[in-house]
Fold these 2 entries.
Entry 1:
Amino acid sequence: MENIEWSTLSFGYKKTDFNVRTYYRNGAWGNLEVSDSEYLQVHMASTGLHYGQEAFEGLKAYRGKDGKIRLFRWEENAKRMINSARGILMAEVPVELFKEAIFKVVKLNEKFVPPYGSGASLYIRPLLFGSGPEVGVNPSKEYTFMVFVTPVGPYFKGGVKPVNMLICRKYDRAAPHGTGTYKVGGNYAASLRAIVEAREEGYANSLFLDAREKKYIDECGPANFFGIKGNHYVTPKSDSILPSITNKSIITIAESMGMTTERRKIAVDELSEFDETGACGTAAVISPIGKIIDPETNKIYEYCRNGEPGPVQMKLYRKLVDIQTGDAPDEFGWISIVE
Ligand code: PLP
Ligand code: COI
């Protein structure tokens, strides 16, 4: 294994030793196989390649001060992958198989779990796709489920340094009643033009609006959006965003700290009323937003004027990360140890 500089890792792919795979054929999942290849042999007419019949997940393993490896709320990812499978008519991966796969692949790649205190973690990427051939538009009869891992650092450069976001009015990521609530590849393909254009203009990511009216905040690239007013946490309610496990956890933490929380539509105009805003997700953790720019009105919504992240989200961030790494007690029952 090459020497990895854990503390300067960015969010990207690094080869590890093993991945795990299993195939759904004739109506049943096979046994989990271990592979040391980074490649898959895929049928050229597979529905995953042609018709986007594909879903993925993302979760992390953290090394604690005690050296133990902790997974955060993996059952939620298992359930969400089942929901994604239902959304685009794929074979479902049973929770037990999902569990077996992620625990096994983490254990096999134990040496790639970054050390405690490095700020890095092991990103776990389960992937499910239609691997059988179809030429007409049909769901596949065969599926591949695999999981690989890769050590990662922060998604946004600078970790918890505030980042700037560009409101996107040119493209939609997902339609109402479309696939926005599922973690399917098509949503990410649909978001690429917006994200790349925002990055080219110097922004960390784009802030998508509701596709119907272009009036409400949807989500923030690969993360949910939240705003804070005093002691109140607000996050968008929308039928075209991914239900973030991180967001749901922050809501629980906020309430346990005596904050009030709300899921409701957030109009773009309301951005001027927040004391703090941020993006949250497995990859993003909590990423404070410094400025949001609306290209239509040229309005600039500014937070963190001193360049520092807001104090309320930093408190939430600290608690969330402390639970994930085992520095704080697992008071909500979110942690599983990989033995
Ligand atoms: N929204 C999108 C589009 C995402 O890709 C992700 C990442 O998974 C999230 C939100 C955050 O979800 P979670 O907190 O479950 O990682
Ligand atoms: C995650 O936060 O796990 C994600 O899936 C984001 C990703 C698309 C990079």
Entry 2:
Amino acid sequence: MRILSGIQPSGKLHIGNYFGMMKPAIELQDQGEAYLFIANYHAMTTVQSADVLRSMTANVALDFLACGIDPEKTAFYRQSDVPEVHELAWLLSTLTPMGLLERCHSYKDKVAKGIAASHGLFAYPVLMAADILAVNSNVVPVGRDQKQHVEVTRDLAIRFNNAFGKVFTIPEPSIRGDVAVVPGVDGQKMSKSYDNTIEIFQEGKPLKKRVMKILTDSKELEDPKDPDTCNVFALYKLLSAEEEQAELAGRYRAGGMGYGHAKTALLEKINEHFAPMREKRAELAADMDYVNDVLCNGAKKASALARKTLQKARQAVGLE
Ligand code: ADP
Ligand code: TRP
């Protein structure tokens, strides 16, 4: 089984990214041949500063390695080190109906948020399809918001195979049901574009401030509370064992516990879970040559596969 996922280096990674995409990708690296890349071409649809793009790319590399991506198991690379995906994207784009892209929520959402409606933003899912199909991935672990893009990929692969003969594997999205959407501090989907994130590598006072800001209802200290509708509890659940969840849920229901207590319990869990990763990140940051070597080696492996696929596709369409 081949597994591939990617993430845009367009902001500081947060707990939503971690549970929705990073953790599943890290767990899947033991279950097949894993590929993971930093989607810096895609990020150009929203990041238009060379310095910012460069530093965010380096940060995402550090974040993933610190969180548990093992370069021995996963080919970890920068998208731009596998430029074959662009030629593949062109071949696919000639078969892509405009209507298919017009229906993509992510494009509409981003334009509604004020991001420039560039051709790159519109064609984004075609490049994403090329990323996936270039390595003939079977499984694509992503958060729920990316499911539609994997469906577009499947549609394009089927169209291409029907038109030109079987070149591509049809991929399946892998979405973790239990953590489909991680809520942010305001209760909406946690997202860097909503300024409601809890960053993985934030520490100390700023982290505490963020956790204390999580939106709750206005029940009094002595009132019984409902854990199932509480944003603090939703986050606590991601980080704790079942018995701990049952214990805290009991205290919610019994009344006499304020939200401040639940927030403190959550903060402890965040610190406990991410402390070893923070340490590892600091070590890695002091050795960027190693990080670059990892990315270059990953790119070699992905490029070799992409070249093979591209060769087949070029032959199939009559370019060779
Ligand atoms: P953001 O919404 O912060 O811009 P991205 O769109 O870059 O995040 O998402 C990167 C990956 O993390 C995707 O696979 C996405 O589905 C996942 N992801 C992002 N936010 C969440 C969330 N709140 N809950 C679950 N998964 C998420
Ligand atoms: N669009 C994805 C995101 O924003 C990133 C991405 C680009 C990706 N290419 C991909 C994810 C291929 C999985 C497979 O999160």
